[in-house]
Amino acid sequence: MSNRRNFLQKSAIGSFLTAIGILPIAACSTTEKAVATVVNNSKRTKPIAIATWNQNEAATVAAWKVIAEGGSALDAVEQGVKVPEADPEDQSVGYGGRPDRDGKVTLDACIMDEKGNCGSVCFLQHIKHPISVARKVMEDTPHVILSGEGALQFALSKGFKKENLLTEASKKEYQEWLKNTEYKPVINIENHDTIGLLAIDQKGDISGACTTSGMAYKLHGRVGDSPIIGAGMFVDNEVGGAVATGVGEAVLKTLGSFLVVELMRQGRTPQAACEEAVNRIAKKQEFKDIQVGYLAINKAGEYGAYSIQPGFNFALNDVEGGKTEDAKSLL
Ligand code: ASP
Fold first, then answer.
1. Would the pLDDT of 39 be above 50?
2. Mind listing the pLDDT tens digit for each residue in 49-81?
3. Is residue 191 in contact with ligand 1, taking CB distance under 6 Å?
4. For residue 307, how far is its CA from the centre of ligand 1 (angstroms)?
């Protein structure tokens, strides 16, 4: 474990001990005091950063660092998901993502803040951080979604650099795939590492982000659930937030993340809401050979996760430190 991680975990544990009265607040750093005070003062607010898939631990650590330093949930989710976007080893997100059937890496991403503002890019090529372009769409335009060439031109006009995102490793796999050209998603292994990250900051505000290179070897032009507000991600600051991963078409057909948030609004726990959204897919569609996983938090910082197949997991950071957990599943 890196020193940085150790430090963050120790800081977080310190804050937690303070919050439950084991460590005096005076013994803590300013950041720890701030987080501890929030936890002490409001039963309804528990800062947290939580993301799909346990390999995204580093993303939740980066997001938690923003929150612990008093930053906004919006900054936290953006900084968090930029970690896998820049990681060439992560073949489902950003740089290093697996290409489509034409050998092109095309990216989808969206972001949403506590006021209900949102921005999204889809079918975007050549830009390493689509989440930051999505944030610019949200903040600098009157629109919600930009796609393809228009999204690229917009990104370039905002100073983003045009880059080759196809790494040698992903190119080699693609060349292997071309020998049979079979298009069949492999449950939990191929292209199911989309990151959806939700955060609650010290003020109790919630934001969410979702970013992916989508299903590997998809048709050129295909857009999945991940950049669609309400499908791959949805946040309502009064209620909570939800993110999705897995076969995007199944999520799109049920507008899964919006459904999860609405179920929480009606009183369900995050866990029960995720279960109902998975059950909805199972009731309406062929589901036995696909994976879909939902992850949700409510305004109190409680979380839940559920998937069709076993194997879905998630990573989180809060005042107690960082950890990963396996989700329960339908099958
Ligand atoms: N949901 C993403 C998509 O359909 C892929 C994934 O999460 O595996 O593009």
1. no
2. 999 999 999 999 999 999 999 999 999 999 999
3. yes
4. 13
CATH T-level fold of 45-329: Glutamine Phosphoribosylpyrophosphate, subunit 1, domain 1 (3.60.20)
HEC secondary structure over the chain: CCHHHHHHHHHHHHHHHHHCCCCCHHHCCHHHHHHHHHHHHCCCCCCEEEEECHHHHHHHHHHHHHHHCCCCHHHHHHHHHHHHHHCCCCCCCCCCCCCCCCCCCCEEEEEECCCCCEEEEEEECCCCCHHHHHHHHHHHCCCCEEEHHHHHHHHHHCCCCCCCCCCHHHHHHHHHHCCCCCCCCCCCCCCCCCEEEEEECCCCCEEEEEEECCCCCCCCCCCCCCCCECCCEEEECCCEEEEEEECHHHHHHHCHHHHHHHHHHCCCCHHHHHHHHHHHHHHHCCCCCCCEEEEEEECCCCEEEEECCCCCEEEEEECCEEEEEECEECC
Q: In the chain, where are the structural domains located?
A: 1-43, 45-329
User: Which residue's CA is minimally distant from atom 9 of ligand 1?
Assistant: 214
Identify whether 194 is a catalytic site residue: yes
From 60, 106, 194, 254, active-site residue: 194
